[in-house]
């Protein structure tokens, strides 16, 4: 016989099972492990896909973001579908059922779960889903169980009748019988497997039917047997209706596919005793399996307790409670007789052969009570086989005493776990109890037993599933654990973790849906809530064997409590109120030990105000501590207490004042009051919070929330919500108070919120002082901390990843990799897979950090080919680098790519730039950082150990190889675009990364991507080499260009740009020997490399109408010229010509000199009209702003911010401050030319002497002594220039001129060298490499500053004198002014 089932029944049971699996991580992992070890099914073709799907599923379960979860589930389903379609292994089906349950596709999930039974029924019913098998499959397989019993009876039968066989000892069977029994067991397993598949297939048909409420009867089940048992089989089919047990009687011994007592057991097999209210008859043979009779309903006694006795109660105490329901044996007998005679629907009798055993339930009436309590059900199970066996010679009559029968029933009831009533039991309870009419619900509205807590018998309000797979109401299991129990209430299995897991949201959602469909039932069915508001406390007598508080003592304590409460808020004497607070605290702690709820008595506003009155007036530390403790404990469980305190601002302020004064427990109350960040930012409060966080747990009272935890949470609030300056000050305070180790300890806290708060604090501390990361890395217990990834929100996940990515920036690569291995391997979930999923749904500003960290984890092992993790990470970094609309994202991505090189100093700063400079031959910066590390950590030497160096090089090679080979060098294009950015910081980071990767291409095997690097970077690096202002940038560009020499066609491309880069290489020869090496390669004759200079005339302008060009000066992109008619002109070089921007004529005579102020915003012009005029320099013009009368002709002019110096018509140098004061220096010399540098004035005189004058002291130092000639011609100094550490002077000489070079070093001046020209020099200009001498006849000689050799001569095109020359700031344009009024511009390469 089979039982009709509906789709709703199938869905209810499958959803309940899958919900438990999803909510219980340990159960889920155990089932997956069992399926992975399955060798009886077909092998899985792609284990990696299954593993990735499993990791994705685990990640999805922990995600709270709906979009993130949906994305993960879709990925997992996509991986599993091909495996489920082409393979019969149960694991893909099992994982697919979990995925579809999370997708709320319960019908598809049920089908997938049924496929597990079809693929491996034996494993499914015995280890995977035995409960589901019991509830769904067993009722359909009763004929199989009956067939087995018949076959066993036939085998065990001998010449004696079947009755003798029923009590035949299994230890006395013959060898032939034993052999047949073994064959029977094997045959039974095969039949059961095949029929499980048939039933599963029929269930799928039920689910596939359009009418979900229609019931479909599964097909008759197939059985096979030997010839010996064929007749019995036929009889079973024909008489099945009479011989099978009713639906109220469950067959339990064979539900897992095995019978309890194997034939090789030495102990004697016991038969089964059936409970009966009347006589019993001997059957023809006894069944060889235990049967569960219809439940005997025990109605609970009248107590004030809503919960049934918890599982840790002793058997005797529970029996005593049950027995108190009846005052005597006679009363019990009367009740039983009455119950038997009542015309109620009784269970169907158990039929065996032609006899039947009555299974009428025994009902105990409850004691009378004023309140109707919810009945607590108990299901009767069979006792131990040895106690319940029937001897065939034992008379079966009514002679057994009712007391013995009752005692046996009570003992039996204790053996069965508590469950919610079945619909029929529910009717019996309601009809036979004193409950309200609301209890009489219709069968279809009775909540499924999976929706009811086994401890409270109420609908779940906050269900949690513990590691054994059983689900309980949160406050009920918390209460169970608080009483000292360390086992599961149902299985008695010891719990490895006593921390309550998160809410089973899947089950809670299903219950909510059921409530909406059964509103009437929900109104009558109480739900558990941990925050019920009652007027009177619930006095729960202790059921613990260890309790020593009697009921009388309890009443006395409650009386004392009431008196203390009255004194607290009614007494006007402070001492009495203080004593009341201490007494209440004492009673609170004692009553809490026996779970007496006094909260409702204390949480009323008048009493709360009484506590606050004590806090405001008392000075006794113990009283203050007690009052704060009580308010905190009540506030933790009741938000109304916090609301009462929050109504008065002064109360909140006073609680914070108490905290600052040393009542450290007040920090928990502060946390509950949720003060604003502005208030918490007070320096005294921050200091107190740090002090509490730095204390040990043993120093605090035992409270609902640890003060240390509260302090950490509040500190994180200040750091996370304040301005940058306040957050920095708090982090510095944490560091200065040496509380960093205490905060690190919070990383291992049980509460995830505390761990996240610690992350926020430590991250800020590392940003303020990078050296603290070494302490964190040394002390942090990362294995525990990684549990924070479970259920973390998107924002929390980013904080965790940001913290970990900063933590691994250590100056020891081996330690960094150790930490990365822990993060990768020891988390509760696959950390890498969690990050991979995060990349798909995270905020765009979080992408670079997550991608960079994921790449580091993936590169811990050498890769033969790029993994999906590396591909996704690099694609994300490249994508971020191209987000020009989000410069912050671009910059973060560029910084992370640059830091992947893996070298950091002790403070966590990347040393990529310093390492590259060292490789280019400039190692000063890198050595400086190493010396700083040595000072910060004296245990580390300047030179890294060989082991660390090898680890650094190996990591650098792995990272660079993956980056450059990704998508044929796609990263190069993104970095090249970054080099063109207007953001200087972004350009710098891209420049460092590009230089590093190009250098690494010379080390890595050639994979054909060198050409891409040359295309993207060659011109840009040549430009940086030529034009960068920072010498280090130019050296790095030189390092990259040298790397190009190793590439195919690299030398050819560089040679074509040789003339562009040789000049820059000359300038860098003094900094790095690499410059000479490159020049030797580019130039065939090393001696001729200095001759390769290109001077090209850009333009020539005729200004003869304004007379001679007496002075020229260049500033930024402008050129200023002074003329002999008093005109000043402003020019700008555009392409191949000089554009005149402005012309001013404010001077009346020759403009002999021009000078730019130190600030760069003023132009000063000196003239023979005895005035100095001041001009403001604007973008496109100059404007006259001031004029000074100097009372003398001005020939040469130099200026500072406070004064000017010029040579007058007579002797000496006049110095005039802008406030009007003046003085005369060097009065005995006729000065010809001037130069001013850093407060030192250098002057060349008519008598060929050169002096240095200190303007501050007036001290004069002779650099070169002059000569007096009475009759001969003197040799005046016509020009004097300063460049770097050198002074250049030129004077007349016999048949030409002489140029002398002086070196200024450490305040000492010495002769460095001299040049001799055959021409008369009247003007001079000096660049970094060359000296230009302007001569009579319009010629300009060019000399090499190092070799002191003449290179070339420029011709202006006319026979005139070159009066002035000047370079622009880049030294690539030379401007010349002549006596015939011509201005020429020459390009220098």
UniProtKB/TrEMBL annotation:
It is an enzyme of class 2 (transferase). The keyword Cell division does not apply. Residues 322-342 have a biased composition (Low complexity). Residues 343-361 have a biased composition (Polar residues). CDD domains: RING-Ubox_PUB. Residues 218-246, 301-363, 389-417, 526-547 are annotated as: Disordered. Its EC number is 2.3.2.27. It holds the Pfam family ARM_LIN_2nd. The keyword ATP-binding does not apply. PANTHER family: RING-TYPE E3 UBIQUITIN TRANSFERASE. This is RING-type E3 ubiquitin transferase.
